[in-house]
């Protein structure tokens, strides 16, 4: 008789299902599938990043029992580091721009992280949240997770997200679509999938005002074409996780399109998502429209809408930002 083995939450990151997005699949004639990363213990795709960074640091002797993890984050990686860190015996210090949703900041403190809210500044500024995290690590002997340039981030998606998608689609996936926050999800997953089948398209979804569309389309990061309210995505530089990645197509997705998608999914399909998921799905739909029917296109449902109720699901806030939650899905995706 075999003995059943049970584990804590750090052993239950990943293994998320693929969810068929019914109306968008019908509109495009493709299978539009979302990987339900909001089902991870910390509620987002960044739990994978957190677990990968922590376990690799343990292997290298950079994290030891009772140690402290410090990180600059828009929120979700910090949540993952805090939960998984506590499950493995570490404390977390989180540096977060004050522009991020109040729900994420409150949640981080509730979970037990020491949270420092700082002014939002570009990476070129020494006051940028990532640089503050690095300095705190150096000054205190803490472990700096460095999610943007720590390639353990990319590796964990190569080891888990890519193989899961390949198995779940029985190798029939035609394209993988993801926005870039750090680049780990897009790079690690697509590298694995292309090793299985080089014909699988790697697709970048980019909000306006970010530089990845410019980088993958024109080979530079110079184009400044607007702004977005999306949190946690919209990279302005080529991180170590992105270096060397070949992308077949990149799309700009505007906030209204993404908002219309997530409101449709909530009202008609019972999915409660953040705006980054809408950006991802918008690019998946664009790619389906360009490639024609019969494809199987997989994207990431990054996190739930719980952390954005004061913004994305607040009609007064949306009106102040010229966004319409009643704009129809059909008009939004053309």
Walkthrough of the structure:
This protein has 334 residues and is of the alpha/beta class. The chain is built from 12 helices and 10 strands. The strands form 2 sheets. A 6-stranded mixed β-sheet has the order 1-2-10-7-8-9, sandwiched between helices. It has a 4-stranded parallel β-sheet with strand order 5-4-3-6, sandwiched between helices. α4 links the parallel β4 and β5. The chain is globular, with a radius of gyration of 19 Å. The relative contact order is 0.15. The model has no long low-confidence stretch (mean pLDDT 96). It is an enzyme of class 2 (transferase). Keywords: Amino-acid biosynthesis, Pyridoxal phosphate, Transferase, Transit peptide.
């Amino acid at each position: 008789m075999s003995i059943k083995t049970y584990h804590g939450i750090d052993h239950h990151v990943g293994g998320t299902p693929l969810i068929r997005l019914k109306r968008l699949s019908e509109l495009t004639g493709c299978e539009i599938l979302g990987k339900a990363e909001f089902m991870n213990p910390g509620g987002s795709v960044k739990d994978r990043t957190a677990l990968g960074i922590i376990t690799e640091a343990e292997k290298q002797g950079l994290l030891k029992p009772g140690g402290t993890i410090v990180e600059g984050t828009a929120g979700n990686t910090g949540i993952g580091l805090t939960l998984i860190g506590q499950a493995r015996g570490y404390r977390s210090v989180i540096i977060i721009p004050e522009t991020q949703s109040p729900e994420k900041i409150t949640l981080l403190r509730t979970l037990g992280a020491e949270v420092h809210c700082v002014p939002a500044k570009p990476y070129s500024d020494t006051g940028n949240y990532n640089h503050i995290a690095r300095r705190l690590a150096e000054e205190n002997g803490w472990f700096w997770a460095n999610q943007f340039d720590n390639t353990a981030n990319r590796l964990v998606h190569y080891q888990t997200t890519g193989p899961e998608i390949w198995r779940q689609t029985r190798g029939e996936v035609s394209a993988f679509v993801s926005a870039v926050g750090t680049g780990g999800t897009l790079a690690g997953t697509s590298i694995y999938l292309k090793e299985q089948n080089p014909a699988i398209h790697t697709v970048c979804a980019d909000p306006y005002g970010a530089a990845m569309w410019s980088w993958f389309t024109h080979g530079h990061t110079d184009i400044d074409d607007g702004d977005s309210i999306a949190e946690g995505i919209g990279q302005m530089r080529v991180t170590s996780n992105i270096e060397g990645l070949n992308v077949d197509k990149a799309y700009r997705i505007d906030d209204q399109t993404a908002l219309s998608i997530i409101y449709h999914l909530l009202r008609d399909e019972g999915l409660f998502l953040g705006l980054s998921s809408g950006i991802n799905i918008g690019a998946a739909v664009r790619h389906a429209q360009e490639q024609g029917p019969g494809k199987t296109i997989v994207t990431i449902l990054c996190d739930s809408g719980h952390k954005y109720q004061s913004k994305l699901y607040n009609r007064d806030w949306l009106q102040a930002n010229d966004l319409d939650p009643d704009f129809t899905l059909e008009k939004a995706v053309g």
